[in-house]
Design goal:
4 strands, alpha/beta
């Protein structure tokens, strides 16, 4: 039987600074900086399971999330990742909304663009996710 990692990260899938920050930071955390405890499950895969009806209790994706502590990394207040997994009967142990942490007020006109994400945005997002993981481990 496959052993799942302790923490499952489900990042935003938005196509803008916030979504890009969520996805890239989640990947860095789960693949490099905390690969021993965290893994990222993509929202597109979760959405596909939901839309095709493969989200019952026997579903591999549901089994995986029920064995892990799930943290959603949202770009904004719409909280799409959290809403979707809650429809599937999974409650995240924590929900991070990056818009609350990244200083984007002066860049408000750039929020709809993916090209404006900075390495500083990514680093801040990584640090936020890591602190959250440490608090729920």
């Amino acid at each position: 039987m496959k052993k799942f990692k302790q923490i499952c990260l489900i990042p935003c899938s938005g196509f803008n600074i916030l979504g890009e920050s969520a996805r890239r930071a989640s990947g860095i955390v789960s693949e490099i900086e905390m690969s021993d405890v965290a893994e990222t499950l993509d929202l597109v895969g979760v959405t596909k399971a939901f839309m095709t009806g493969h989200f019952n209790a026997a579903s591999p994706i549901i089994k995986r999330m029920k064995k892990q502590k799930v943290i959603t990394i949202e770009g904004c207040e719409y909280c799409c990742a959290t809403g979707l997994i809650e429809l599937m009967g999974i409650k995240p142990v924590e929900k991070i909304i990056l818009r609350h942490f990244l200083a984007l007020e002066e860049r408000e006109d750039e929020l709809s663009k993916i090209t404006s994400v900075t390495e500083e945005d990514i680093r801040k997002s990584v640090d936020i996710i890591k602190r959250c993981i440490e608090s729920v481990k």
